[in-house]
Amino acid sequence: MVGQAVYPLEVVYIAYVVINCIVNYSMQKAQFASISQAGQPSPMPAGFEKTVAAFGLLFGLIWGCALPVFMLIWFSRDKIKDEVASWGGGDTVDMAMPPT
């Protein structure tokens, strides 16, 4: 494993959130398109479907990435690393940077 990058769980989770939001946005657009093609009246005003889909995408990204980004920032602080290192008596591993 020498020379191989180590990705913290938070980075993997952020990638999962981004992919999940894109898939949900595509499904929502397809659902609105199928409703309009079926000839049924939309339950929302004209053009509002795109706004709802975009808001869902934006809210999902913000909500899904808030905790991992906070954890990446929080645990990269030297003061927190020192505190966590004192708990087990061992050295901390910097998960944000790959080992050299």
List keywords for this structure.
single chain, mainly alpha, 67% helix, rod-shaped
Radius of gyration: 21 Å
Alpha-carbon distance between the termini? Answer: 11 Å
| Count of domain modules | 1
- Report low-confidence residues grouped into runs of 5 or more: none
How large is the share of residues in beta strands?
Answer: under 5%
Helix content: 55-70%
Mean pLDDT: 80
Please describe the biggest sheet, giving its number of strands, its sense, and whether it closes into a barrel. none
- How many strands appear in the DSSP assignment? 0
Task: Note the run of SSEs as H and E.
Answer: HHH
Shape: rod-shaped
> Helix/strand-derived class?
mainly alpha
* Number of distinct helices: 3
Written account of the structure:
This protein has 100 residues and is mainly α. Helix content is 67%, strand content 0%. It has three helices and no strands. The chain has helices at residues 9-37, 48-74, 78-88. Helix 1 (9-37) packs antiparallel against helix 2 (48-74). The protein starts with 8 loop residues before the first helix and ends in a 12-residue tail after the last helix.
Task: Provide a quick synopsis of the model.
With 100 residues, this protein is mainly alpha-helical.
Topology (elements, then pairings):
Blueprint: H1 9-37, H2 48-74, H3 78-88
Helix pairs in contact: 1-2
